Request: fold
Amino acid sequence: MSALKVEAEIYNFGGRLLKLSHESLVNNCSMGVNLYLPKQYYEGKTKIPVLFYLAGLTCTPANGSEKAFFQPYADKYGFAVVFPDTSPRGVKIEGDDETWSFGTGAGFYVDAVQEKWKKNYNMYSYILKELPTLLKTKYTQLDFDNKSITGHSMGGYGAIMFFLRNPNEFKSCSAFAPILNPSKTNWGIKCFGGYLGESESDKKLWEKYDPAEIISSNSYKGPVVPILIHQGVNDPFYKVKGDYDYLTPNEFLEKIKGSNYEKDVTLKFVDGFDHSYFFISSFSGEHAAHHAKYLGLLD
Ligand SMILES: N[C@@H](CCC(=O)N[C@@H](CSC=O)C(=O)NCC(=O)O)C(=O)O
Reply:
C-alpha cells in the first residue's frame, strides 16, 4: 500500500486541514485528498467518527473544504471530514478533458468497465475501499467503522448511491442538490454511457449505480436510516417549469413510492437558493447535526 504524504497542514477553526497526496493503486495515478481533523483530535481523543464529503462535477478536494463550512460543526460534534477528489488526474486519456461533465473532474463515482477508462477511472473502489483503508493506517485516532457520507450534485448522487449499495458501511447519508435518477439525465447518460457502456446489457449496470433504481427496486436491505436532502428551487440545473432537469428530485420522489424508503426521505425544497456553495454552506449545519445523531455524537 502506498504512503500518504502531508503536503500542507493549515490551522482551521479549532482543528487543522491537511492537504494529502498518495499514489492510488486502483486509479493508477497520484491523487489528492483533504482531511479536516477536529479539535478533539488534537485533545487526544480516540474513536473519532468520520464524515465523507463527495464534491460535484469540476471539483477538487479544495471546493468542499474551502466553501462548504463543515469544519465548525465538525468541532462542535467531534467528527473528522474527508474531502476526496472527483476523478483521477493527469492520466492523459484522449477525450478526458474535452468537457467539464465527463473525464477529469467527473469520475461519477463508478468503476469503469470500458477499455479506454477502466485502468484509471475507478472512483467507486477508491472511495469505498482504497481511501478509507489508507487513511485508517495513518490516522489511528479516527474510527472508519463509524462513518457517514454526504455530497453535492454528482457527489450527492454518489453519497446516496454508496449508502444504498453498501448496507451497514455508512451510518447515515445526506445530499445537497443530488442527481437522483442519473440514468435519466444528460450528465448521467454521458458518464454512465462513457464509463460503463451504452448497450442494453450495459444499462443493467447503470441501474446498480442509480439511487432511484436501487431504492425503487427495494434491493437495499440494510437499516432504514432517514436520508436528508436539500434542493434549491432557484438552482439552474433544476428547472421547475423549464425544459430540462439535470437533478431529477421529482422523478426520485415518484420512484420511491411503494418502496421501503417511501417515508424516510426528507427532501426539502428551499426557495431562492441556487446550486452554489452559498446554498451548501447555508445548510451544512443541518446536515452535520443529522450525521452527528447517527454517528452517536448527540447526548
Ligand atoms: N463549469 C460549469 C459549472 C459546473 C458546476 O456548476 N459544478 C458544480 C457541481 S455541478 C454537479 O455536479 C460545482 O460544485 N462547481 C464548483 C463550485 O465551487 O461551485 C459551467 O461552466 O457551467
About this structure: Residues 5-294 form a domain with the Rossmann fold fold (CATH 3.40.50.1820).
